Amino acid sequence: MPTRVNRAAHTVLGLAPGAGLLGYGAEASTAPERAVAVAAFLACAGLAVRGYRAGVRCEAERLVVRGFLWSRVIPRAAVTGVTGFPAVRWTSPGGRRRWTPVAAFTTASGETSGARSRKRENTVRLRRWAARG
């Protein structure tokens, strides 16, 4: 799972634009402008929650990957590997080869060495879990 600092950083991706939208909505002069600001704010709030919960949960028989926009549940037997991106390679029940990115473990150029190290460790753990499948 991501560290608290990473969770906070992912949450800010939704909160920062949401705060700006609240300011815009307060200054909007018409009801439709306010309605659009409220709808966009709610979308940002949803993104903030998804950002906080982004990560991977390895269970006995399945893998749950939570991203910023959607979650995917992958049966353990379907997982074929983990890429360096990182992403999970897997095969659907119909035989189609799939690729699911793990946004919470991707590294960025400006992050601290501790955060980068933790993400690499988590990716290694994910690879070990997949190899035991």
Amino-to-carboxy terminus distance: 20 Å
Assign a percent range to the helix content.
40-55%
How is the main sheet built? 3 strands, antiparallel
Secondary-structure element series: HHEEEEEEH
Structural class: alpha+beta
- Strand residues, percent: 15-25%
Mean pLDDT: 94
| Count of distinct strands | 6
- Count helical runs: 3
Strand order of the largest sheet: 1-2-3
Low-confidence stretches: none
Query: Could you tell me the radius of gyration in angstroms?
Result: 18 Å
Overall 3D shape:
elongated
Can you walk through the features of this model?
This protein has helices spanning 4-27, 31-53, 113-132; strands at 55-58, 62-66, 71-75, 79-82, 87-91, 97-101. It has 133 residues and is α+β, with helices and mostly antiparallel strands. A hairpin with a 5-residue loop joins strand 5 (87-91) and strand 6 (97-101). The chain starts with a helix and ends with a helix.
Describe the structure using short key phrases.
alpha+beta, three-stranded antiparallel beta sheet, 3 helices, 6 strands
